[in-house]
Amino acid sequence: MRRREFLGSSIAASVALSLPARVVLAADTSSTPQLPAQIPAVTGGGVATTLTRSDLQALQRSLRGPLYLAGDAGYELSRRVEDRSIDRHPALIVQPSGAADVRTAVTFAREHSLLLAVKCGGHSQTGQSTCNGGMQIDLARVRGVRVDPAAHLAYVAGGSLLGDLDHEAMACGLVTTAGTVSHTGVGGLTLGGGFGRLARRFGLALDNVTAVDIVTADGEYRHASATENPELFWGVRGGGGNFGVVTSFEFALHPMQRQVVSGNVVFPISRLRELLLAYGDISAHAPAELYMDGIVSASPGKDTVFVISVCYSGPAERAEQALAPIRKLGTPLADTIEARDYVAVQRGTDSTDPRVRSEYAMSGLIDRLDAGLTAALVAGFEPDPERRTEIFFQQGGGAIGKIDSSATAFPHRQASHNMMLVTDWLAGSDATAHRRYVDRYWKSLQPFTHGMYVNTMNDDPPAIVEANYAGNLQRLRQLKRRYDPTNLFRLNANIRPGAA
User: Fold this and answer.
1) Per residue in 469-486, pLDDT tens?
2) Closest by alpha carbon to 372, among 484, 296, 481, 280?
3) Most CB within 10 Å of its CB: which of 26, 241, 371, 484?
């Protein structure tokens, strides 16, 4: 999901605008671009700095993967993220070929105190997988999934996309929780939590991680599991990208048939209050095999509707029993629920809109969808002919809530749903009215929330971000001091190291 753009410091912005393009010298008969004498960059603290040709040459010679500067053929594609309206220009981009290149890039960034962004799928809603004036590590070449069917394990390279994992695992009759959009990065989703269509049955994506390989801020390559570096293993499962770059994940897999029962039931908006309450009640009592999102959707040129989107992954003969409460809601405008291929379902909500759109979103976790929240939702929802507006309820519960809040760094086990308010419009048009509407509407909804899902967080002040880790914050801060004392990895739901 795309999210609002933020500008960063004025220094970073000015550095980005002054980045030189690489040129090929007339006397050079090779196709290798000449490195510039120097390039401007910016530190993590927002201070202007300079990288010299010798700095860049040393980095380039140490890499197997490419080093991109502004003007290089691969630069534009790497710097872009899912929200194409986010337009940032790193001073340099490293596209590692593997863990060794990641170590080299992290060491270079640390030694030069560079602002550092790490990109996997590019779905960071605040654009934190790119930056102005710093270094971007783009993991696009660090991809691949190997499944061990006998051990029910998947070994997943750190830059892989969720669709890679679904495709390989399901070919062996195995699955794990892997989000709802197949082109999302495994790393970004998993380290922050990992809701998905199977999370109520098998737990969050992070609950299925059995080990990671990670490059920490000191450039060291570490393995973390329940028996090796167990405290780091605890922290990466919910602590986001605060501790390093994960180059490999090991996931537990679960047997599951390939065919699921999935689709949408669409109702008129005139029944919104009634249907929101019904959805809240049904989703609270649904079996773990049934995942159901509630969506209030208004798009230009289309009727405003309420949608219940389901995926039932249990035994086929029990599907209608699980769906019966939804069937009792009355005659819908449309009903597309049918037997489907699970991997196709996972691809079904991928973004295919070629237009460049700007997006603004708010999100918060709720414990229940009750009468008070329902009244606020109905009162504030306003369709607009120039924007798409959605309220989206991503279902929690089930296996997610059966794990103690301190067992991993993810503390929000009690949440029934992740509630998101999302708007988007064609890039280039005036965003003022759209943003004001979201801010005003969210102000009426926020009192019903209890924390935020870090993978859909806004540009909140540091104190609010840290408070969201709740009772796990101090333990996470100790880990941060140990593995990233200078806060090299700060473009995330950041945990400041603080004083010992």
Assistant:
1) 999 999 999 999 999 999
2) 280
3) 241
pLDDT at 32 over 70: no
Tokens 């929780």: give the residue.
177
CA pair distance 154, 382, nearest whole angstrom: 45
Cα atoms found within 13 Å of the Cα of residue 473, Cβ hemisphere only? 15
Nearest to 125 by CA among 390, 494, 459, 467: 459
pLDDT at 434 over 80: yes
C-alpha of 255 from chain center: 26
Strand ranges (DSSP E) for 342-464?
357-366, 388-395, 417-426
Q: What is the DSSP string of 295-341?
A: EEEE-TTS--EEEEEEEE-S-GGGHHHHHHHHHTT---SEE--EEEE
C-alpha angle 77-82-87 in degrees, rounded to nearest 5: 65
Structural contact between residues 388 and 305, judged by C-beta atoms closer than 8 angstroms: no
CA neighbor of 22 nearest in space, from 117, 93, 97, 113: 93
CA angle 402, 404, 410 (to 5 degrees): 105
- Residue 448, both tokens: 């019903």
- In 3D space, the residue among 72, 83, 86 whose CA is nearest the CA of residue 20 turns out to be 72
| 3-class DSSP assignment, residue 462 | helix
pLDDT band at 499 (very low <50, low <70, confident <90, very high): low
**Which amino acid is present at 232?**
L
Quote the tokens at residue 220.
């060291």
